[in-house]
Amino acid sequence: MSAKGFLALALAGLLLVPCGTAHGDSAATSHGISVFGDLKYKAGFKNFDYVNPDAPKGGELRLWGLDNFETLNPFLLKGSKEEWSGLLFDTLMARATDEPDALYGLVAETVILPKDGGWVAFNLNPKARFSDGTNITAADVVFTFNALIKDGHPSYRILYRDVASVTATGPNKVRFNFKPGRHRDLPTRLAALPVLSKAYYQKIDFTKTTFEPPLGSGAYKVAKLEPGRSIVYGRDPDYWARDLPVNRGRYNFDRIRIDYYRDRDVAFQAIFAGAYDFREEFTSKSWATQYDKPPVRDGLILTETLADETPSGVQAFFFNLRRDKFKDRRVREALDLAFDFEWTNKNLFFGQYDRTNSMFENSTLAAHAPPDAAELALLEPLRGKIPDEVFERPYKSPVTDGSGHIRGNLRKAAKLLRAAGYRVRKGVLTDGKGATFTVEFLLFEASFQRIIGPYIRNLKRLGIQASIRIVDVANFKVRSDKFDYDVVIRRFVQPLTPGIEQRNYFGSANADTPGTLNAAGIKDAAVDSLIEKVADAASRPDLVAAARALDRVLMWNRYSLPQWYKGVHNIAFWNKFGRPKIKPKFGLDVVETWWFDSKKAAMIAAGKAPPAPGAPSTP
User: How far apart are the C-alpha atoms of 265 and 284, rounded to whole Å?
Assistant: First the structure.
């Protein structure tokens, strides 16, 4: 699991339903946890259905990263992270990616839950070890939690704010007590907790960025490192959990190598030169026009499009509402009217994308119909505090004919700006004090210039002085963490079952927390109340109603200018790997479930095309 994977798993909104044996009169012990129903995998299961339990071990998988990395500590706010450093650490429980929200025993063999939901306890596997052979104990879990809360990324404090205390109630048992109230998501947030060594960090300063390979308990250790440029993870032959049901058929590569490229175009060309093995393509132009290369034509590199059954990531231009010029909703609507998605999709994206009109796009949680009775019951108490359009119709971004002529939209935008108190003087939009309306788009790479350039031309027709500022990744992170921007492009992934992570995305309490995912700086009591409805939903229908209600309020407030999405994975890879017959429904799991095929690799080395694998099915 990558460092990003830790945050994604920690942010997966889950309701815990124990499925196990009674524990006294008020608690149950279970081998796993799930949402709103039974676990797919019963106690004693052998392996996940989407793996090959007999997959051979060996070989190398080569991946790529952009720019560089500044630390192997993935748990801090500061420093650009090595994306795959999560491979070094095991979590209390492991996620199954063919279920929307289930985790099963890893470092923790079982979980204990009381009926009142006031606490959760984990029984650790007595065989659990760090890679130096030392036992993983409850004291390590307590240390980890306290270190993350005190010195870790602010997201941990947001996620775990309702934990009152954590206690080691035995050498291999840890209990988390909750603050008063209903805390649907907390048990699974804690089940996703990585476990760090207390003894190791008594010698090493947890708060500092470092290239020193940390002590972990995961399937891999750092085998080779060129700081900021490349890293090789080596599979630990003594990995303590290699035969657990959650790991059979997983982590099959002896080595995983990641090389970092300063230039995205150079990185793109490198796969065809054989410099790395696997790529998911996110650039529509490249996918449509640039894969007709000899290795692809000769069958050495395969290209595939696979279904993506997860909510599409929210990608948008986020307006920094901490700055006065973006506080008026009419201004934000005007900025939206100036963006011509249809022309952009036709001319730059080869028609491969759909417009994002929801914070939960590509899922049943998206509010694409008028509000029903359940949603209205949540929204009516907020009438007068939220946009009237919420009650009338689903949100839809402005639409054009794709010709590039958007005079009608610009006239509407100009009218909105005038109503907001702005006037055009000598071709320049100014406020009531005569200050020029400027907009700076903060980027860390040049590829978005071709998209923002036409948008800037439209903004200038409104008198808005717009520009692009490109900085390196490190400076981008510093400025983003400090909210030093007008408009920034952010992408985050919504979980299959939203919950308290929405506080981090949109909540008032965290709007000014450095490093928050609330890029827009939203401070809205109505949004806060709906976030809690999402987090407290006791059933799937209740969750759908709450998520759609929240969606409507966020979208009609126009806190961001939504961009685009596609509900598929476009992948390219050298055909020297095997993979399971079943693709997990909610992931690709290339690192976790594919394996190196030495016969195919030998054919490729001889310039011969190996047989293509059959298309994987989904469960």
Answer: 14
**pLDDT given at position 184:** 82
416 is a domain residue: yes
| DSSP letters spanning 174-243 | EEEEEPSS--SSHHHHHHT-B---HHHHTTS-TTS---SPPP--SSEEEEEEETTTEEEEEE-TT-TTTT
In this structure, what CATH number is given to the domain that contains residue 106? 3.40.190.10
What single letter denotes the amino acid at residue 434?
G
Asked, for residue 223, whether it belongs to a domain, the answer is no
Nearest to 345, CA basis, from 457, 454, 223, 196: 454
* Overall size of the chain counted in residues: 619
Q: What is the pLDDT of residues 443-475, one digit of tens each?
A: 998 889 999 999 999 999 999 999 999 999 889
CATH number at residue 436: 3.10.105.10
Q: What is the mean pLDDT of residues 3-9?
A: 41
Q: Is 193 in the same domain as 340?
A: no
Pick the last residue of a domain from 517, 539, 565. Answer: 565
* C-alpha span between 45 and 471 (Å, rounded): 50
Give the whole-angstrom CA distance, residue 439 versus residue 411: 19
Residue 209, amino acid: T
Residue 364: name the closest of 305, 309, 314 by CA: 309
Last residue of a domain, one of 201, 216, 239: 201
User: Cα separation of 111 and 491, whole Å?
Assistant: 33
Q: Are 443 and 473 in contact (CB under 8 A)?
A: no
Give the structural domain span for 392: 314-565
